[in-house]
Amino acid sequence: MLPFNNGFASPLWHNGPIPGGLYNFPGHNGPASQPKKDYGVQRASQPITTGTSVVGLKFDGGVVIAADNLVSYGSMARFQDVQRVFNINNKTVVGAGGDFADFQCIKRYIDQKIIDDMCYADEYEMKPKSLYNWLTRILYTKRSKFEPLWVDIVVGGVEDGVPFLGHVDLRGRSYQDDVIATGFGKHLALPLLRERTETGKPIGRDEAIALVKKCMEVLFYRDCRASPNFTISVCTKEKAEILGPFKVSQNWELAKSVEGY
Amino acid sequence: MISAENFPEYNVPGVVKHDFHPYESNGGSVVAIAGDDYAVIAADTRLSSGYSIHTRKQNKLFKLSGTTVLGSTGCWCDTLALTSLISARMKMYHYLHQKVMPTNAISQMLSIIMYHKRFFPYYVSNILAGLDADGKGVVYSYDPIGHCELASYRAGGSAGALLQPVLDNQIGLKNQENVAKDPIPKEKAISVIVDTFISAAERDIYTGDGVIINVITKDGIETRNVSLRKD
Amino acid sequence: MSSIGTGYDLSASQFSPDGKVFQVNYAAKAVEKSGTVVGIRGKDCVVLAVEKIITSPLYEENAASRIYTVDKNIGLVLSGLLADGIKLLSIAREEATNYRMQFDRTIPLKILNERLSAYIHAYTLYSAVRPFGAAVILASWDEVNGAQLYKIEPSGSSFGYFGCASGKAKQQAKTELEKLDLKNMSTEEVVKNAGRIIYQVHDELKDKEFKLELSMVGKEVDGLHRIEPSIWYEMAIEAGNAAKKEDDSDNEV
């Protein structure tokens, strides 16, 4: 392109994404910031089939993410054997809460990214921070169009030898921390996890798994949308692995001493 | 036949009804003070919504250049979108002009970027602190749609209304009699800021956990951390 | 050249009186000029091998590769004009992506072959376009369908093979392949034969330098398409060098 052909400076950022424009899913036609021509529409934006809490914890040399295996339909325990933690590759793992269809939709794109990485055959793989930031932009774009993807996603992994743990929600609001919990886990699991991390003492892999298992037990007892079956994903520098399914060993002896109802 | 078509006033084109709320208040406060040869800006580190605290160590200060720092709180997803856009625009300016954008230019750009979303605003409270071309400290404060005002001290965010009168009194020396209006020394400014945050943490549930302070001088940006109450 | 166009070779949209589309034949000629490529389908693997002719020492080792990955377990090798082939590669990847988006599984090679063949064929029908000067070999392996191997010509016609070859020494390579019992061949044997054939068909007098490119997909590599997996690659080169040495000593006698 000739820079001074007509007295106007050529666009600075010619073929790149529009700075400040919204970042769309790949393959979408046209820039996202273009306003829609049609008048207002009304659509139901509420989650339908949902997963409850996801719990995540950093430990010395890795991260662990856990979620139960239930996808609910309102108050019905509809799908009782659905894994909600996934290994994206051997350095990135995710856990999904909120609308499961929305998450599956996002995951299709993530899976394709992984295959694209394989096709390039350059030994480069997507790292957790990249996935985390990508999710942030996708979810923020959708919320800005009033078409939110109703999800709560915990991203974990190990990047350049350093553990990573982050949370993105349906608005694209994101943060990183040593402990993360979504949904009901925010109220029930976070205090348990923070109690341990705030001692400042390093946490080993086995202790982290035990701690997260304890959280899943507490959540099962008190969260009406939780199931006793859960899965754990552990990611260290060496590999990412899925553990489980585990089952909360239930003890309802206490119920016998409850009286007066 | 009774339907919406018979009552055009009930079926206005362009009316959008949504049960989804794109905004969320994630709390946080920012305080900045400008001196003769320095600027200090501080923000707490609590990120919350409602009664739950997402994280206790969220930095809300964004270094835009060697002499300019932006403090941004409010709807955190908007803060993230806005600040990443600003840093992209900072780079573009750098490549085009072969120099770092000066503080006054950043203040103008920030205003324009925010006003571009006048009818779907970034729901954020911004305070920009830095040094001007003469090395003098400056503070700019903004409303969510891009109104910009130059000040010498400002408090913003969830405890902004709580803190501003304290600054008026302690830094602006308002309603004080028989005091010399001497320039505020840097360390005095920092200690006032720390005190305001300690007070804010007592009264505002969205402010607490810790404060990150950036002290901007001609020698660079120094970062300090202070703990606040965590309840 | 067996025939020249005599005016009927200017467009892909016109037949000659004896029923040829000359532009397509010329495209096939472009393929015949390129380095030899072979695809060999064994009992539970497919191996792709290329005689990559190095025209100048100034190129980087991995410059102008001819073997690519289309999807997890699908490999693609190109012969002919590289730039034309790369376009076909991107079309193949797009097809694989679209299929996965719709059906949440890897595209069956049969379908990919049909789609890509149709695309290549479309470029033999119109006056405004030029046919692709590239032939494509597709390879895959999975638990259900086992090993699969297809070759698509510039004309858009395609067939499934046990062994196929394209490029300069296509005939010679095919002769070698026909001697083998491919249906029952172990992965190791397939790899060794692939290396051997490429080294054997290489004509040192015409083209001095070449690099063996090799990829495989099959049971032994976790069902993934792997380009130059170290142990197997070395095995192929070893077999190639051994064959070359034998040939050389035969000549001396």
UniProtKB/TrEMBL annotation, chain A:
Keywords of this entry: Cytoplasm, Nucleus, Proteasome
UniProt keyword Transmembrane helix present: no
PROSITE patterns linked: PROTEASOME_BETA_1, PROTEASOME_BETA_2
Short name of any one Pfam family annotated for the protein: Proteasome
Stretch list, region Disordered: 24-43
S-adenosyl-L-methionine recorded as keyword: no
GO BP: proteolysis involved in protein catabolic process
GO CC field: cytoplasm; nucleus; proteasome core complex, beta-subunit complex
Domain of life according to the entry: Eukaryota
Subunit structure: The 26S proteasome consists of a 20S proteasome core and two 19S regulatory subunits. The 20S proteasome core is composed of 28 subunits that are arranged in four stacked rings, resulting in a barrel-shaped structure. The two end rings are each formed by seven alpha subunits, and the two central rings are each formed by seven beta subunits. The catalytic chamber with the active sites is on the inside of the barrel.
Its job: Non-catalytic component of the proteasome, a multicatalytic proteinase complex which is characterized by its ability to cleave peptides with Arg, Phe, Tyr, Leu, and Glu adjacent to the leaving group at neutral or slightly basic pH. The proteasome has an ATP-dependent proteolytic activity.
Family that this chain belongs to: Belongs to the peptidase T1B family.
UniProt-recorded name of the protein: Proteasome subunit beta
Organism: Hermetia illucens
From TrEMBL, chain B:
Membrane-spanning ranges: none
Keyword Cytoplasm on entry: yes
Keyword presence, DNA-binding: no
GO biological process terms held by the UniProt record: proteolysis involved in protein catabolic process
Subcellular location, record wording: Nucleus
GO cellular component term, pick one: nucleus
InterPro entries registered for this protein in UniProt: Ntn_hydrolases_N (IPR029055), Proteasome_sua/b (IPR001353), Proteasome_suB-type (IPR023333)
Keywords assigned: Cytoplasm, Nucleus, Proteasome
Assembly and oligomerization: The 26S proteasome consists of a 20S proteasome core and two 19S regulatory subunits. The 20S proteasome core is composed of 28 subunits that are arranged in four stacked rings, resulting in a barrel-shaped structure. The two end rings are each formed by seven alpha subunits, and the two central rings are each formed by seven beta subunits. The catalytic chamber with the active sites is on the inside of the barrel.
Protein name: Proteasome subunit beta type
Source organism per UniProt: Hermetia illucens (Black soldier fly)
Automatic annotation (TrEMBL), chain C:
Superkingdom assignment: Eukaryota
Residue ranges of every copy of the Proteasome alpha-type subunits domain listed in the record: 8-30
Classification via InterPro entries: Ntn_hydrolases_N (IPR029055), Proteasome_alpha (IPR050115), Proteasome_alpha-type (IPR023332), Proteasome_asu_N (IPR000426), Proteasome_sua/b (IPR001353)
Family: Belongs to the peptidase T1A family.
SUBUNIT field: The 20S proteasome core is composed of 28 subunits that are arranged in four stacked rings, resulting in a barrel-shaped structure. The two end rings are each formed by seven alpha subunits, and the two central rings are each formed by seven beta subunits.
Keyword Phosphoprotein: no
Name this polypeptide is given: Proteasome subunit alpha type
